[in-house]
Design goal:
The protein is α/β, with parallel strands linked by helices. It contains eleven helices and eleven strands. The protein has a six-stranded parallel sheet with strand order 7-8-6-9-10-11, with helices on both faces. A five-stranded parallel sheet has the order 2-1-3-4-5, with helices on both faces. The protein is globular. The longest helix has 15 residues. Helix 1 runs parallel beside helix 6, helix 3 runs parallel beside helix 4 and helix 7 packs across helix 8. It has two domains: about 120 residues, Rossmann fold, CATH 3.40.50; about 200 residues, Rossmann fold (3-Layer(aba) Sandwich), CATH 3.40.50. This is NAD-dependent epimerase/dehydratase family protein. It comes from Kaistia geumhonensis. It holds the Pfam family DUF1611_N.
Length: about 350
């Protein structure tokens, strides 16, 4: 896929910032591509870029409108269709990370054909994946895992890529979700892969590499989440990680979208090691990434210190504190960069 920049980010009328995490992630990691946002009445999210109508966006040089919102099931609400059609009529391409294919909606397909515009469904890969084999391959891999979905696994992997490269490591982010694909330009939306081929798709995404090269694989869901554990387990087996980082949001008591209680970080470490040992018996945790956005500075500092002391592992907030302690732990355990 060659999605043309710059972007207009369509947020629809989502109820909170988490539901606009695709748009917000693109802004955080590729701000130079984001000219504006389009929000419908009632939208409770803000990507922090100018609000623009489609005509204004076109005049400002936008080439593609990104459907930057997500929801349970990845469906496209009927009342968003008119905005997508308007963008196509203005000559913009449209890209979406939802499960619903844009071209499956007649009004959208016909508008694209009428105006010579391109539709991109990044959640749907044209690649044909084999089943996973679980055979040891060269190179090193780190997987971000979570106590829940939407706790910062993508941000942690991207922050580690930047920090490890700065420290002299050979490291690449490997996107497994639609937002990561928009950011990196390459990847596969694992949750849209037929179940039998999830681990094989991850093996394809992170193939054999030089012995000292690190692939930083974006995690999805949680092994404890009743909705998404199947994806998380296939991802774990295919990634065959040497190391993993547990991502956590400390103010939640239940997992997002269900009534099940949030597991402890210790539970996640234990289950990840037990399941991950199938394809890499040497798997180990190298750090904890905690999203402290809801805490003040004092509370965040105290929580990170308590967690690090309790688990004898570096505990960081990738945005607030950076990930240097985890990079140092990787160097201590696996050897320094180069």
């Amino acid at each position: 896929m060659q999605i043309v920049t710059p972007y207009l980010l369509f947020l629809g009328d989502v109820p909170d910032a988490l539901a606009a995490k695709t748009a917000l992630g693109i802004v955080d990691w590729r701000p130079e591509w984001c000219i504006g946002q389009l929000r419908l009445p009632g939208c409770k999210a803000d990507a922090g870029v100018p609000d623009l109508g489609i005509a204004e966006a076109k005049a400002a040089g936008v080439r593609t409108m990104i459907v930057g919102a997500v929801n349970a099931g990845g469906v496209l609400p009927d009342h968003w269709i008119a905005s997508i059609v308007e963008a196509l009529e203005a000559g913009l391409d449209v890209a979406s990370g939802l499960h619903t294919k844009l071209g499956d909606i007649p009004a959208i397909r016909e508008a694209a054909e009428r105006n010579g515009a391109t539709l991109f469904d990044v959640r749907h890969s044209s690649e044909r994946f084999p089943t996973g084999k679980g055979t040891k391959r060269s190179g090193k891999r780190l997987l971000t895992v979570g106590t829940d979905c939407s706790v910062g696994k993508k941000y942690t992997a991207l922050a580690l890529e930047a920090a490890m490269r700065e420290a002299g490591f050979s490291a690449d982010f490997r996107a497994t979700g639609q937002t990561g694909v928009f950011i990196s330009g390459r990847g596969v939306a694992i949750d849209a892969v037929v179940a039998d081929f999830i681990s094989g798709a991850v093996e394809w995404l992170s193939p054999a590499a030089d012995a000292d090269h690190w692939d930083l694989v974006e995690g999805q869901g949680s092994l404890f989440h009743p909705s998404f554990a199947g994806v998380s387990l296939g991802l774990l087996h295919g990634a065959q990680p040497d190391a993993f980082v547990v991502c956590h949001e400390p103010t939640r008591t239940r997992m997002r979208g269900v009534q099940h209680p949030l597991p402890s970080i210790e539970d996640v470490i234990d289950l990840t090691v037990r399941c991950g040992s199938l394809t890499n018996p040497d798997i180990r945790c190298v750090g904890i990434a905690i999203n402290t956005a809801a805490l003040d500075d004092a509370a965040a500092t105290a929580l990170l210190a308590e967690t690090a002391g309790r688990l004898s592992l570096p505990a960081v907030d990738p945005i607030r504190t950076g990930v240097a302690p985890i990079v140092a732990e990787i160097g201590r355990v696996f050897g320094k960069a180069g």
